[in-house]
Design brief:
This protein is mainly alpha-helical. It is built from six helices and no strands. Helix 4 runs antiparallel to helix 5 and helix 5 runs antiparallel to helix 6.
Length: 161
């Protein structure tokens, strides 16, 4: 499991709670609320979509080390586009979704820091860009930039806390 810091470990724990709850309640035919609903809350409360890049560690339950770092790899909700007031300026721009379970599990098992996280994630992005018509080198460049942009808010947050 991760050795780097509580942000990776606690974000992974939030992801596991979110994913297991989602599968369980979906199997009971419950319909998850739409993220575009102003009262949106996932089944488990573990998605951490209220995490702000400006949050201070330990100030409130939704902030700090319990981030959406892993959840945002799978979900299709961009909290920056949420109807909450000032969402654009305070929430992450999450344009990532559908990352494979294999990659997420590899990150959980092998990432010791956010650089490892980014390196493991980059090949998935490369495949996505290639499937959308990019050549290999272009896809690799785009993927590296997307992975870097994905982890940057967390690098900044961790370095400040």
């Amino acid at each position: 499991m991760m050795k780097y810091n509580n942000t990776l470990r606690e974000s992974w724990a939030s992801y596991v709670g979110w994913e297991l709850s989602r599968h369980y309640y979906t199997s009971l035919r419950w319909v998850e609320p739409s993220p575009s609903d102003i009262t949106y809350s996932d089944f488990s409360g573990e998605a951490r979509q209220g995490w702000k890049r400006t949050d201070r560690k330990g100030v409130k339950k939704d902030c700090g080390e319990y981030s959406p770092l892993f959840v945002d790899l799978r979900d299709d909700h961009n909290q920056r586009h949420h109807p909450w007031e000032n969402a654009y300026s305070i929430y992450l721009d999450d344009d990532v979704s559908g990352i494979s379970y294999t990659t997420i599990n590899k990150i959980a098992a092998e990432a010791n820091n956010l650089d490892d996280f980014r390196s493991i994630l980059t090949p998935d992005f490369t495949r996505q860009f290639m499937l959308n018509g990019s050549g290999v080198l272009e896809a690799m460049d785009k993927a590296a930039e997307k992975a870097r942009n994905y982890v940057t808010p967390y690098v900044t947050w961790v370095s400040n806390h």
